[in-house]
Design brief:
Elements lengths: L1 H8 L1 H22 L5 H4 L2 E5 L2 E4 H15 L5 H25 L5 H11 L15 H14 L1 H30 L4 H12 L1 E10 L10 H10 L5 E2 L2 E10 L4 H12 L5 E5 L4 E5 L8 H8 L19 H6 L5 E7 L2 E13 L2 E9 L14 H17 L4 H8 L11 E6 L7 H7 L6 E6 L2 E10 L3 E12 L4 H20 L2 H7 L5 E7 L4 E2 L3 E2 L1 H8 L8 E6 L2 E11 L2 E2 L2 H25 L5 H8 L3 E7 L5 E2 L3 E2 L1 H7 L11 E2 L3 E11 L8 H26 L2 E3 L6
Antiparallel strand pairs: 1-2, 1-26, 3-21, 3-25, 4-20, 5-15, 5-19, 6-7, 8-9, 9-14, 10-11, 10-13, 12-13, 16-17, 18-19, 22-23, 24-25
Helix pairs in contact: 4-5, 6-8, 7-8, 8-23, 9-23, 10-20, 17-18
């Protein structure tokens, strides 16, 4: 009590202390989120040339894209798509504003007419688009539904913007057309030819050369524009797969075996023991399989080639009423009872006429009753028995099957394997069905002509009870314990060494970008990417992640900031380039002077090769491959004189032109110029947007929110 009294006496003091602590906590969080401007930053997902992109509007678009994709896009994919559209629209709007492009009302109206052609709200009694109807519709919206009217205004603005954009693109395309001179150059590039002899000294002849980190660093400095990159991360990881143990396998097999025989269970409701039929004695196979199996019952016959290859012979030779199994197939323990066996054809060539009636799926507009449809189908069948040549006429006049009525009702060859069980399929493949007759389905009455059947073969109907082999709770707990043990040990020691001592495979992923989602063999793992880019995650930090099929223990191994690519990151691409440059220098120093190609070839212990009818469009040298620099140089060399050494893709070359064939001049190069213009125009839009992005200042904050 004395203590409580003292606390009460100092209550004001304690309140002040608690308030200060809370205030300091809020301040710390405020500074971490960017100071007092943080609240604004939380609502901005990006900035394009000073134009801010609202997070709320962006999120709504992402939700819309995902909704329209019906689950075919992940969140990261939808975010990427919306971001690209937003950036493109912002950059395009900026250009349109700078140029002051305008479109007239006539152009906008024509665009509206094209977009809403066929809309019943805007068409007159003749089915034609009517601007008067459109204006009436808009006036009605404005008077009765302000929200819908604002949506229409937004649609009009978008159409106007699209019209401006199309005008802008057309201006750009017009500016990239090819002239007649360029058409002539393109023609000559394809048809001017040279014949030449050449000596190739492969770079390998220079021997092995060392490429140091300093060499790579210097090369990157000299090629900054090409090797400037966005921020990236590198990780290493161990994957722990959750898979069934041997005990799980055996337990699943035992569970399956218990379903084959009859068994007794105690009914808590009736307080009596009840006998449950097993697969051996059950008569309702569909109910039994669907209640006890992890795979649904298939009430159809199967031919040998449809059965699992490893078990097909055994299943086909199993007697009717007997059970084959248990057998393991596709991660299931299975047991199959042969329910029925018979000889049947697997392919039927047939025609049909579908006589529908009111109430069927394809007879919504019909007034014909079911009785009238049956009478008509029987009548058609009777007439066709006397004259099958009438089938085409009857199909076109009476059939409700739009896919076959104009093909004389022809179904072609119907393969039993490719069909689902139905009354119509049962009729086609039944042994007792007449070659010409009538059968009923939910679509109506079918007048069926069976023209031909392939020879029958054995088919069986099987009832298969299957149990999937899955990890048990114990297996899952054991894996979690194993994963956690490794996570702790790797955090206290060397990741690689701990993995090696446990024979775990360590895999690396380099060049991870901030908005990446898919990671190597791990699939979509956005959580790992976000962790790797979190400012609180340091190099060598380790974390365990749940993945759909187990766990991943990852370690961040490198952080690369935005800017010039790091030596380690660029090494794989740059090392061969530098190596080739060093080898070229060695070979050039060794070549010295020479009188002829044969002299050079002898001194370098290589041969003289020749190439005929070489052109600039396809700069291919026999035995060397594509060498555009070498072939390009050859077109400007005099005949009969060896060239100076030329650095190519695969070695040092010396060439000697032996002949030239100029392309036959054309009267006009207009068609070629038009073709070149068309190709450039097709590429212009993409090239334009790429150029606008390269010159823009874009601040991307998506990773903070997704």
């Amino acid at each position: 009590m004395a203590v409580l009294n003292k606390i009460r006496q100092r209550s004001v003091f304690l309140i002040i202390i608690i308030a200060l602590a809370l205030f300091s906590f809020v301040l710390a969080d405020l500074f971490r989120s960017g100071g007092f401007s943080g609240a604004k930053d939380q609502n901005i997902i990006g900035v394009v040339n000073g134009e801010e992109i609202s997070r709320e509007a962006f999120a709504r678009q992402v939700e819309g894209v995902q909704r329209n994709s019906r689950g075919n896009l992940t969140t990261a994919q939808a975010v990427k798509q919306v971001w690209e559209n937003q950036v493109n629209q912002t950059l395009l709007s900026e250009q349109l504003e700078k140029l002051g492009l305008q479109v007239g009302n006539d152009q906008i109206n024509n665009s509206i007419k094209q977009q809403f052609a066929g809309n019943p709200n805007f068409t007159n009694e003749n089915g034609q688009f009517d601007f008067g109807k459109m204006k009436e519709y808009i006036a009605n919206l404005k008077a009765n539904s302000p929200e819908a009217y604002q949506q229409w205004v937004s649609i009009e603005n978008n159409i106007a913007q699209q019209a401006k954009a199309q005008l802008y693109y057309n201006l750009v395309r017009a500016g990239v057309g090819a002239t007649l001179v360029e058409g002539e150059q393109a023609y000559k590039k394809q048809n001017d030819q040279v014949n030449l002899n050449f000596v190739q000294i492969p770079y390998e002849k220079a021997g092995e050369v060392e490429v140091s980190k300093e060499d790579i660093k210097a090369y990157l400095q000299d090629n900054k524009k090409k090797y400037t990159t966005e921020a990236s991360r590198a990780i290493q990881y161990v994957y722990f797969e959750e898979k069934p143990s041997q005990a799980d396998d055996e337990e699943t097999k035992e569970e399956l075996m218990s379903l084959l025989e009859d068994r007794k269970i105690y009914n808590e409701v009736s307080k009596m023991e009840e006998e449950i039929k097993g697969l051996k004695n059950t008569s309702d196979y569909q109910e039994f399989i669907n209640e006890n199996s992890d795979l649904a019952y298939e009430d159809r016959f199967s031919f040998k080639d449809e059965l699992p290859t490893a078990f097909a012979d055994a299943l086909m030779s199993t007697e009717t009423g007997a059970i084959y199994g248990p057998y393991k197939h596709n991660n299931f323990w299975k047991a199959s009872k042969v329910v029925e066996s018979k000889q049947m054809t697997d392919s039927v060539k047939a025609k049909h006429i579908l006589v529908a009636y009111s109430g069927t799926a394809v007879g919504q507009d019909l007034e014909r009753t079911k009785e009238e449809a049956k009478k008509l189908a029987d009548s058609l069948s009777t007439e066709l028995k006397s004259n099958q040549d009438l089938f085409k006429e009857f199909a076109q006049e009476f059939s409700a099957d739009a896919s076959t009525k104009n093909k004389e009702g022809d179904l072609g060859w119907v393969n039993y394997r490719n069909t689902n069980s139905s009354d119509f399929i049962d009729y086609l493949f039944a042994d007792t069905s007449p070659s010409l007759g009538v059968t009923e389905t939910e679509f109506g009455f079918h007048v069926v002509l069976i023209e031909e059947k392939k020879a029958p073969k054995k088919a069986i109907k099987i009832a298969t009870v299957a149990k999937e082999i899955e990890p048990s709770e114990k297996t899952g707990n054991d894996l979690f314990a194993e994963t956690t043990k490794f996570e702790i040990a790797a955090g206290e020691s060397d990741f690689q060494e701990v993995a090696k001592s446990n024979t775990y495979e360590v895999k690396d992923i380099n060049g991870i970008k901030e908005m990446d989602e898919a990671l190597g063999g791990l699939g979509n793992q956005r959580a790992i990417v976000q962790w790797a880019f979190n400012e609180d995650t340091g190099v060598n930090d380790i974390k365990r992640f749940d993945v759909p099929t187990g766990y991943v223990v990852a370690q961040l191994t490198q952080k690369y900031d935005k800017g010039l690519m790091a030596v380690e990151e660029a090494s794989e691409e740059v090392t061969p380039i530098i190596k080739k440059e060093k080898q070229a220098k060695i070979l050039l120093d060794k070549i010295g002077s020479f009188e002829s190609l044969q002299d050079l070839a002898s001194s370098q212990q290589v041969g003289v090769k020749n190439a005929n009818a070489v052109n600039l469009e396809n700069p291919f040298l026999p035995g060397a491959g594509s060498e555009p620099q070498v072939v390009g140089a050859a077109f400007f060399l005099p005949e009969g004189k060896p060239s100076a050494p030329i650095k190519g893709e695969k070695g040092i070359y010396v060439v000697e032109v032996t002949g030239r064939t100029a392309a036959t001049p054309l009267d006009s190069y207009r068609l070629i110029a038009e073709r070149e213009s068309k190709e450039r125009a097709n590429q212009a839009t993409n090239a334009l947007m790429k150029a606008l992005k390269n010159s823009a200042e874009i601040e991307d904050k998506r990773a903070k929110f997704y």
